[in-house]
Amino acid sequence: MTLQQAQSRVDHWIKEYGVRYFSELTNTALLMEEVGELSRHIARKYGEQSYKQTLTPQEIKQSIAGEMADVLFVLICLANQMEIDLESALVQSIDKKTRRDHQRHKHNPKLHD
Asked: What is the pLDDT along the chain (113 residues), one digit of tens a residue?
């Protein structure tokens, strides 16, 4: 699925099942909530915190994937509301980073073992 297809699919879902988009402010708050939920899983998998219950590696991976998808869903809602083509925006962002950072990381000794 392309980003344009994802934006269209989310828009269809909102109109079919969600009645309407939440306000941009509400969706921004929801985005932060979803990022927090993703952060909680990453802190438990890669950081010093642990899960309250034992989860299999597959369950942890599924939980992280689900939270990433939730973040993407709300981000797509915001893009749709603001009439932003995420696919085009991503291409522009990659191009900008390529121009700006094309040598930066290659010369960063912290990235080389």
From this structure: 999 999 999 999 999 999 999 999 999 999 999 999 999 999 999 999 999 899 999 999 999 999 999 999 999 999 999 999 999 999 999 999 999 998 889 889 999 87
Question: What is d(CA 27, CA 21) in angstroms, rounded to the nearest whole number?
Answer: 8
> CA 72 to CA 66: how far, in whole Å?
10
Contact 50, 24 (CB under 8 A): no
DSSP for residue 25: H
Q: Amino acid identity, residue 3? A: L
Cβ 86 vs Cβ 2: under 8 Å: no
What letter does residue 23 receive in the DSSP assignment? P
Closest by CA to 4, choosing from 91, 75, 69, 86, is: 86
CA 59 to chain centre: 19
What is the CATH architecture assignment of 3-85? Orthogonal Bundle (1.10)
Domain segments of the chain: what residues? 3-85
Answer yes or no: pTM beyond 0.85.
Answer: yes
